[in-house]
Amino acid sequence: MNMIRTAMLLAFMTALFMGVGYLIGGTSGMAIAFLFAAGMNLFSYWNADKMVLRMQHAMEVDRASAPEYYGIVENLAQRANLPMPKVYIIDNDQPNAFATGRNPENAAVAATTGLLRRLNADEVAGVMAHELAHVQNRDTLTMTITATLAGAISMLGNFAFFFGGNRDNNNPLGIIGVLVAMIVAPLAAMIVQMAISRTREYSADRRGAEICGNPHALASALNKIARGAHQIVNVDAERNPATAHMFIINPLSGQRMDNLFSTHPATENRIAALQAMTDIQPGPRFERGSSFSRPAANPFGGGSTSGPWGGAQKPPRGPWS
Asked: According to the UniProt entry, what is the EC number of this protein (predicted)?
């Protein structure tokens, strides 16, 4: 089903590129747009995950540089029978997290420093279990391709503004075609994000609760993340709004409503669904010093003077310090 959904998404994106190209430059513009879309689709399949991680300035960590955080992800992956994903930390005070990758064998999970500081170990485990659920459900391919191509659509709208008015470009509709392209492109980017069904968040919440064995910890984490996301601006996400649907909670400011234009369900509805779950087998608590959390001075590194960024500045202290 996920492959069908991805194929439909790619087909829609290709048709959209060709349509906007036709409005800008006629048949020649449509041909150029088709070649551009085909190349972008191929490039996105192999590289979209790396681009998204680079947009968020994510830094890869390992067992030595972030032992407790890495240990939690490692043991959750074992519980879910998944390959160990790459683990990243984003130096951002807004609590949030996302997963990316074209398949479970090439997956990555990322959490912000704000999340690791503000959530306790059980809550972090719930969040990372949710992200691993996206990996297991193979949502991440669709999510990352959407993030890359939605941004490309917006750029195509800007292209229409600068080059669409040329009288020699065979534009069949003239300035009207240019205006339509400028208006349709950003709206289409929004529609593509909405096309990624919001029900996947409910599905990932439930499967994440099953993986970690603690739906109430995930519910508590969602509450903390939602409050933090509305109070703290995520500059990188604001600069790249096409990536918003990838995060566990919408990182953009001013989008609290569970309406047609929201990329996420209302947090209150997700929390209620988790709190209503009574058929989840309780899992082990992720406490400091347990097999799920290797002892460390703080969740960001093995010592008090260096963190995953390799600097000499003391990293912020986390909930396990």
From this structure: 3.4.24.-
